[in-house]
Design goal:
single chain, Rossmann fold, ten-stranded mixed β-sheet, two-stranded antiparallel sheet, binds adenosine-5'-triphosphate, binds magnesium ion
Length: 291
């Protein structure tokens, strides 16, 4: 499907080009401040997603810096989860979803015909909004992914390492055979992070990972993200603007157009986006006037 992602420039009778009154990210390049001089883990170019005939998100040019935390924010329905799912081809699992444009992982187009989506999902792990441990032991929750990926090392060491990295080891080391479902919500979410880490991904995607957690468990996850970023690249969707402001290095703000079409309004270093936004729509959103 061909997608018109850039609105046509308006031509007046005199032939001079007029800018649209409300500009759009694709006509406001100043609002796209890609990380400078840094290795990129992922990048999108003109990314668009349809669900059947509905254009859910369009024209997304985004760069994800390696070993940094990138936050996606914006009002409900603007396409944050949709964009996040493009990063590991999870939209492949939705039959009506159609992705166009490019998504690159380490410079390679992950939608190219010779790419194995299973391998993409190993490299780009995902943690969901609601903690979803398997109804298995804590140990098995962590070991499972590694085992199906053919891990041949010492499983006990791998499980301990992943639980240590997820800051859960001390709380569960004496009950590894207990059910993952017997843990608290915050512990379950850290177990899901351990499970994601155990297959040695490069990138961890998190879709509102704290929205089911209390403030203390939320802070725990935020602290954990800060330690994880030395080894991983993290992309997080959050509705909590304080969380984006305090926990992320870069922020992408999305909005929705008149046809419920989501698009990227502004992207840049978090501190700049929150203190000195380029686009007035970003300012309206972060100051609570919209959304
Ligand atoms: N499986 C689907 N089939 C059809 N439409 C979908 C599907 N998933 C999402 N959409 C639509 O795509 C648009 C973007 O949805 P998405 O879930 O990406 O938004 P979001 O920004 O993550 O919202 P929220 O903050 O509420 O989680 C919405 O209009 C939504 O209704
Ligand atoms: Mg969502």
């Amino acid at each position: 499907m061909t997608v018109q992602t850039r609105p046509p420039r308006l031509q007046s009778a005199e032939g001079e080009v007029q800018q649209p009154r409300v500009f759009d990210s694709t006509t406001n390049p100043e609002a796209l401040r890609a990380p400078q001089g840094m290795p990129m883990a992922m990048a999108t170019r003109d990314l668009a997603v349809h669900y059947a005939a509905f254009l859910a998100v369009r024209g997304v040019d985004l760069a994800v810096a390696r070993n940094k935390i990138t936050a996606l924010i914006g009002p409900s329905g603007c396409g944050k989860s949709t964009v996040l799912r493009c990063f590991n081809r999870m939209n492949d699992l939705i039959p009506t979803a159609q992705v166009s444009g490019k998504v690159e992982l380490d410079g390679v187009d992950i939608y190219a015909p010779d790419i194995d989506p299973v391998e993409v999902r190993r490299k780009v792990g995902m943690v969901f909004q609601k903690p979803n441990p398997f109804p298995k032991t804590i140990y098995e929750n962590v070991a499972w992914g590694a085992r199906i990926n053919g891990y041949r090392g010492r499983m006990d060491d791998l499980v301990e390492d992943a639980l240590q990295r997820a800051a859960l080891w001390d709380e569960v080391k004496d009950k590894l055979q207990a059910s993952g479902l017997s843990l608290s919500g915050g512990q379950q979410q850290r177990l899901c992070i351990a499970r994601a880490i155990a297959v040695r991904p490069e990138i961890i995607l998190m879709d509102e990972p704290c929205s089911a957690l209390d403030p203390i468990a939320t802070l725990r996850i935020e602290e954990l993200m800060q330690t994880l970023k030395s080894d991983y690249t993290i992309v997080i969707v959050t509705h909590n603007m304080q969380q984006a402001a305090r926990a992320s290095d870069y922020t992408a703000f999305f909005s929705v157009g008149s046809q419920r079409d989501g698009y990227l309004v502004e992207f840049g270093p978090t501190a700049e986006l929150f203190t000195n936004p380029v686009d007035p729509r970003t300012e309206d959103y972060i100051t609570g006037r919209f959304g």
